[in-house]
Amino acid sequence: MSSTTYFEKAAESGFALLNPPGEYTRFPLVGKARPSVLALAFTNPPLLPFVKSWEASLPSTGSDHLPITITLAAPSLKQKPPRPRWADTDWETLDPIIKGFKVPAAPSCPTPLKLDEWMSESLNRLVALLKEHTPVSRSCHHSKPWWTPHLTILRREYHKAARSARTSDTPHMREIAGTSKAAYFKPIKAAKNEHWPSFLLTTTPQSLWMAKRFAYGPAQPRFPFLPGPETPQQMKNVLLDHFFPPKEPFSPPPRLRPHRSVPPLMTGEIAAALSKCSLTSAPGPDGIPYSTWKQVNKLNP
Question: Which class for 146: exposed (0-12), middle (13-18), buried (19 or more C-beta within 10 A)?
Fold first, then answer.
């Protein structure tokens, strides 16, 4: 908790965390003293692509400190994989294809493995059809994922008005510059909010603290009240029990047996389940948004 201030300052400046917090780097020679830790090791954005690993796995150098190894390597110059633009899917061509799509027959004696294979085969065929008729975009590593061509035009107009206001310094030009500024920064905020779900899907251990900073804002300067623990070991147990409570063991998956009296899954039930899914929710592991799945269900329930 005492390092929250450092994380906030680092997130505000764009710095990223390198090492796992709490890794011991100093072991005192006196048995009664507690070992200290190097809890924070940050790097600035220009250096982050070059950092490959951070570790304290080497033996002691003779003192009570452990040497830290930071491996640097040239960043990968490979372009990011193309990203489907689901808003531009060619539904006019997909309309007859989706309506004629047939789901393969389910296995006669279902088992978890057979059901998983049948479901994966059907889903992969449908996803392949959707991606085949959806254009893709490939952005360079310098571009922001939420940036749009419309923002480029607004930025150009805003800087043009700002330069004119600084040159003439008249009330009329200052008013135009203020209007251009509002028309530029409001769409930026809306684009960032729209990109937030996809940003959470691609969060890495290095950007985790930045995501937390964006989501919760600055933390209050306080320490949680922990009654009872007096030693570091007791405090550790209390924190582990609070944040990671023990879970009941999972029962083994039952073997699926055929039940001929079970009614089939109705199309209305599938449509009702999709109607509860928000269009702004993050997509699942397939990366396809709910707006696309709702359109598929509309064409072929």
Answer: middle
Q: Has this prediction a pTM greater than 0.70?
A: no
Specify the pairing of strand 69-72 against strand 83-84.
unpaired
Token pair belonging to 297? 């269900």
State the DSSP code for 129.
Answer: H
As given in the structure block, the two tokens for residue 128 are: 């392949």
Q: Which helix (H) or strand (E) holds 137?
A: strand 136-137
- Tell which of 22, 54, 77 closes a domain: 77
What is the Cα Rg of the chain in Å? Answer: 27
CB burial of 64-73 (b: ≥16 within 10 Å; e: otherwise) equals eebebeeeee
The full 3-state SS of 1-63, as one line of letters, equals: CCCHHHHHHHHHCCCEECCCCCCECECCCCCCCCCCECCCCEECCCCHHHEEEEECCCCCCCC
Pairing relationship of beta strands 42-43 and 16-17 according to DSSP bridges: antiparallel
What pLDDT does 202 receive? 78
77, 109, 144 - which closes a domain = 77
Domain count of the chain?
Answer: 2
Contact 39, 45 (CB under 8 A): no
Instruction: Look up the domain containing 177 and give its range.
Output: 83-203+264-299
SS3 289: coil
pLDDT (tens digit, 9 = 90+) per residue, 206-223? 677 777 777 776 666 555
Q: Is residue 103 domain-shared with residue 156, that is, in the same domain?
A: yes
Instruction: Write the DSSP string, 143-211.
Output: S-TT--HHHHHHHHHHHHHHHHHHHH--HHHHHHHHHHHHHHHHHHHHHHHHHHHHHHHT--TTTHHHH
Backbone angles phi, psi at 141, to 5 degrees: -75, -5
pLDDT tens, position by position, 173-186: 888 888 888 888 99
pLDDT score for 260: 66
HSE, CB side, 13 Å, CA atoms: give it for residue 260: 1
